[in-house]
Every structure is written in structure tokens, then in C-alpha cells.
Write a structure and sequence with these properties.
By secondary structure, this protein is of the alpha+beta class. It contains 7 helices and 11 strands. The chain has a 9-stranded mixed sheet with strand order 3-4-5-6-7-8-11-10-9, sandwiched between helices. The protein has a two-stranded antiparallel sheet with strand order 1-2. The radius of gyration is 21 Å and the shape is globular. The N terminus is likely disordered.
């Protein structure tokens, strides 16, 4: 094989592999998708523009902070000033497990698409909350920072039910879509993690609350889909109720700007 042909073959092989990788990122298996949101999907996808994002106002957390360390330039070092300034308007909520998460809103979606790294909070959680149409089910899209921006690593949906028969019906409906990829958990799903790890499942379905016959609104089941590439990092010491993975600094991108002392401006 001549040098020219060899170079052409290498280039062709590279492009073929690259095309396969991109295709794999865009066409996730059906058991890793929900409402056309898929594990690994980048926040730049037009799908994020099609949703009416919700913000639970009672949980909105606005920290009162003054001084240099509170400025966007200090909070998000390494970004151009016009980009870091936009981060100042991100909305943070305190979730039910008392952890904090940045939420997607229509007004800050463009800003979140600029986020490539976060020096001060490398594992910053970003979530999008919406109601599926026409069912009205509450659904949450969880994203984490990767080198090319925010990507979906977790999908969750709450299903209300009024009795055991409705719960069984929901389970059959979910199983018809996701098959054996999902663990169908007979206990409270806050304890599902160890079985998901051991059985190498991509998520779970089951009751997220104890059954309350006196209050139908209090009875919910949940479907959670997790990223199989980070599933191996799940541990029983992770926050079970929040569905969090452990500290995994090797996964998250920390550029040079994050590992050296930046001079005060």
C-alpha cells in the first residue's frame, strides 16, 4: 500500500469511527430515552427549546453574598467576562434532600449552553423540570458538565396512582416500553441502588412513597433512567434519595484555569 493510499485509508477509517461515535450519541437506545430526551444528549439539542420549563418557586434559593468572591468572574473563572456575567442570573433551588441544583429556565437556557466547566463546583447539578404532554406527569432531566457542555445523565418521572391495580397497570405500561433494561423494584425505590448496580440495569421503576389510602395525591411511583457509563460509579454510600453518584473527579473536565491561582482583577 502506497503512502498516499495508506493516508487515505487511515483518514477514511477515522471518519467512519467518528461518524459511528456521533451517530451513537444522537441515536440512544429506546430504553435510555424519555419524551425524546436521551441519556448523553447535549443541552444544545433543539429538544430543550420545545419544553415549558418549570421552576418550583418555593424552593428557589437566592444567596445573599457580597464581595469579590461572589462576583461571576470569581465564581466562574476562566470564562470571558461577558459569558461569566451571564451566569450571575442562573436560578438555584434547594431540593427536597437539601442539596442545591441549578434549574433550566427559558431565560437562562442560552447561558447554560455556554457552560463547559465549573471551577468552583465541578459537579454542579443542573436539572430541568417539566410536565409531559398530554399526561401531565412531572418529569426531571438531570445534566452534568462534560468537556463539550452539559449532557443528560439521568431522567426521572413521577407517576401518581390511587390503588394497587393502577400501580400494576403503570408497571406493565413501563415494561412494554423499556423491557428488562429497567429494574422493577418491589420495595421503596430509595433502596434500589445496590440491585441496579449488581444486576447492571439502566434504571428502575417502583414506588417512591409508602402507600397512603387517605390521600391519593400522596401516592407516587417513579421511573428513573441512569447513564450506563456512570452506573459503575454508583455506590451504596451515594445519596440514594437524590439519585446521586459519588465523587468522580476523573469524569469532569477541569481546565488549566481551574488548577492555578487566578490574580484578583
Amino acid at each position: 500500500m502506497t503512502g498516499r493510499r495508506l493516508r487515505a485509508w487511515i483518514l477514511g477509517s477515522f471518519l467512519s469511527v467518528a461518524a459511528t461515535f456521533v451517530s451513537g450519541q444522537q441515536e440512544a437506545p429506546a430504553h435510555q430515552c424519555l419524551d425524546d430526551f436521551c441519556i448523553g444528549q447535549n443541552i444544545s439539542s433543539h429538544r430543550f427549546d420545545d419544553v415549558q420549563w418549570l421552576v418550583p418557586t418555593k424552593l428557589v434559593n437566592r444567596d445573599q453574598c457580597t464581595g469579590h468572591n461572589c462576583s461571576p468572574e470569581a465564581e466562574f473563572p476562566g470564562y470571558p467576562s461577558d459569558a461569566s456575567g451571564a451566569f450571575e442570573h442562573l436560578t438555584t433551588i434547594t431540593t427536597f434532600d437539601m442539596s442545591k441544583a441549578t434549574v433550566i429556565t427559558a431565560s437562562t437556557l442560552g447561558t447554560l449552553r455556554k457552560l463547559r466547566y465549573d471551577c468552583t463546583h465541578p459537579e454542579r447539578r443542573v436539572i430541568g423540570i417539566y410536565r409531559s404532554k398530554p399526561s401531565g406527569y412531572l418529569t426531571i432531566v438531570g445534566l452534568r458538565i462534560f468537556p463539550d457542555g452539559l449532557r443528560v445523565y439521568r431522567l426521572a418521572r413521577q407517576f401518581p396512582y390511587r390503588n394497587q391495580a393502577e400501580l400494576i397497570s403503570l408497571s406493565h405500561t413501563v415494561k412494554s416500553s423499556y423491557g428488562e433494561a429497567i429494574l422493577y423494584y418491589p420495595y421503596l425505590t430509595s433502596n434500589a441502588y445496590s440491585d441496579v448496580i449488581q444486576q447492571r440495569k439502566d434504571g428502575w421503576f417502583g414506588r417512591s412513597s409508602m402507600f397512603n389510602p387517605k390521600d391519593a395525591a400522596d401516592n407516587t411511583a417513579e421511573l428513573v433512567i441512569t447513564d450506563p457509563t456512570t452506573r459503575r460509579l454508583l455506590t451504596t454510600s451515594s445519596d440514594l434519595t437524590a439519585g446521586e453518584i459519588g465523587n468522580t473527579p476523573s469524569l469532569w473536565y477541569r481546565p488549566e484555569q481551574c488548577v492555578r491561582n487566578l490574580p484578583l482583577q
